[in-house]
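Blackboard transcription, Thursday session:
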Amino acid sequence: MVDAGIASVDLPRGSLLRTALRSPSFVAGAVITLIFIGLALVSFVWTPFNFATQDIPNKLHAPTTLHWFGTDQYGRDVFSQILVGARTSIAVAFIAVGIGVAVGVPLGLWAAARRGTLLDDAIMRLNDLVFAFPALLIAILITAVFGPSATNAVIAIGIFNIPVFARLSRAAALSLWTRDFILAARVAGKGATRISVEHILPNIFNTLVVQITIQFSLGILAEAALAYVGLGAQPPTPSWGKMLADSQTLVSLAPHLAIIPGLAIVLTVLGLNLMGDGLRDIFDPRLRRSRR
Amino acid sequence: MSLLEIKNLTLAIGDIPILHGIDLSLEPGKVLGIIGESGSGKSMTALSIMQLLPQGSINSGTINLDGVDLLQKSERELCSIRGRDIGMVFQEPMTALDPLKTIGDQVAETIWVHGRMNRGGAHDEADRVLERVGLPRDRFPRSRFPHELSGGQRQRVVIASAIALKPKLLIADEPTTALDVTTQARILELLRRLVAEDGMGMIFITHDLAVVAGLADHVAVMRHGEVVESGATRDVFRDLKHPYTRQLFEASSHTPPRDPSLPGGEPVLTVANLVRDYRIPPRHLFAPAGAFRAVDDVSLRIERGENVGLVGESGSGKSTLARAIMALEPAQGGTIHIDGTPLDGRDLKARRKLQVVFQDPYGSFDPRQRVDTLVTEPFHLLGSDAPRGQDRRRRIDAALTNVGLSPSDAEKYIHEFSGGQRQRIAIARALIIEPSLIILDEAVSALDVSIRAQILDLLAELSDRLAISYLFISHDLSVVRSITDRVLVMKAGKIVESGPTAEVFANPKHPYTRELIAATPNLERALANA
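(Written on the board underneath:)
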């Protein structure tokens, strides 16, 4: 999707990167996001403790030099859990949003290109049908058939994301289809598919980026909700959402158990939001010129 | 004493100065025309009088309305002045009315917010005002909604709410620009009558010299936030003292030079018995679907190098005809041949001969693409024959040079160009695959007069040099008159008159053509009567 935008702009790589580095929000967002992705990767080779090892005598410790983020109710090291949990949470959210974008955006563009026809109606009513069921219900449905796991949670959240992106891209594309430059492309003999890819997609990119960052944060929270009712990642595999959910009975006793995974989620979402804002500016030639 | 006296008015929005010391005055019962091109500050002057400026605006100077300085008034006092002492009519009657309110409520609202009457009284008064602006109750019940009226009728409703409280001053900002010529003539007549009856002063803002010449007692010519010349209409237009006034005057009646030997010979476009129907959804479940015939059995022929005008009012079917010729919409009957090849939507080969330039220079380009990508879009029609590499580069350079731009502009984005330059790029995009026919759909309507004159010159020169034919669609008869060899007049889906342009204008045969020509504001005629 991003490629379509760049390809049509046809800029040398260096220049686009240079503009990107000049955007403070993009740089800040990218740094935060990269740190979290880095942490998730580090957890594959190193964690200060084994995330699953219980040490009951040392339970509910506040942060110390030994346990940087303290310990939980079983005496497990919270820092190690955050590292390993980053894998689950980020992967779940990324893949779920990926499914939503990969299926939803083409569906929405297709419906917009055939606007007013039976096909448009069929696609959009099908989307309404999916939309009518909350993610949780779909997840219960899926786990009832395939059994509970993080993979099934991803699929459930992903399916829930499809109508979000389908509706958004259809609505944004519809207003573009009435513009003169689309008419000019039709006069040049271009078909609906080509126009959708070359003209519509780059122009709705702004809107999509904003929605992607929103859906990403919702994805992390949805995974937490699923984990909470036991339909997401199975114990002992940690996820940020599950850590947050587990901490709720202990909030007054050990507030760090809620604050630390909460901060991790907030910072990741903030990083992505900033990056999304930056990306939006970078891909808009009007804003790009004015910054020079 | 003057009704309105503006002295040394300046306006800055943020750090940007917009108006530099405007002096204007207006007597009761008189019309002051403010003329200027886009960006001249004419609308900002009007909004300064209303004190409806954008955020961060700073005014200085004085605006005296009947001895009261409006710049010294608080927002609360201004609210009671707006609508009561000053009425305003905007350009776009489609958006100036609340779509969810009936026309009766719309006008009554102005009356009762100023607390003169209760709601019942306000509705009775609204009824009388609507009657005055030519919307009699029996034909236009007060329970109608704006979407049930035509553009001209809506503008009458807007005027009714502006004059409902008999304001001392009426400001009309391009009130007829969005209307057809015959409607425009009737609205101008109405405004003239209201000014005479109520003795109010009117400021009439426009870019159209011919409209002002027939209406205003005094004119002020504005450019770059300054009044460059002002005085009695007749004196200003007779003497043309200021070079800018002369330039505007010449641009408005500009006729590009043509090589008369060229047109003729083989036909480029032949349209025979074309029919375009729109399906009307059935009124109830089992009723048959109706049909609206937008283009009714139209035949026409354009020869090589010939410029043909297609005139008609909105709804006459001229744009539908153009869309059918461009194969953007299916026709229900008839044939279209381009350079002898029958045209259908799928055949890219025949479509190479046909290109189009649209009205809106801002909406016709993808903001995400560079000019070189935009201009080469029609290469898609060439399929695998499309030029690549050096050859492509050369074609882009040639197309841009042809329209008076420089080859280095290819690397810029569209937002870096002005409206006139964008229209040049639109022409370059049409020229790049060397078509035989270019459809110009209101291609100069959105441009200022001086830019319009340049674009018309460019079009005439390209037509002579490259032997390109134009189908020039426009509602503006004076433009059609200056650039076309032949003209077709369209009404209700049919071509009612056609012939050489000079002949049709000099001796119109069909009553509709006569009506159109009479309604078109004419600068020379207006000055002769002044």
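Lecturer's comment: Residues 253 and 478 of chain B are 8 Å apart (CA to CA).
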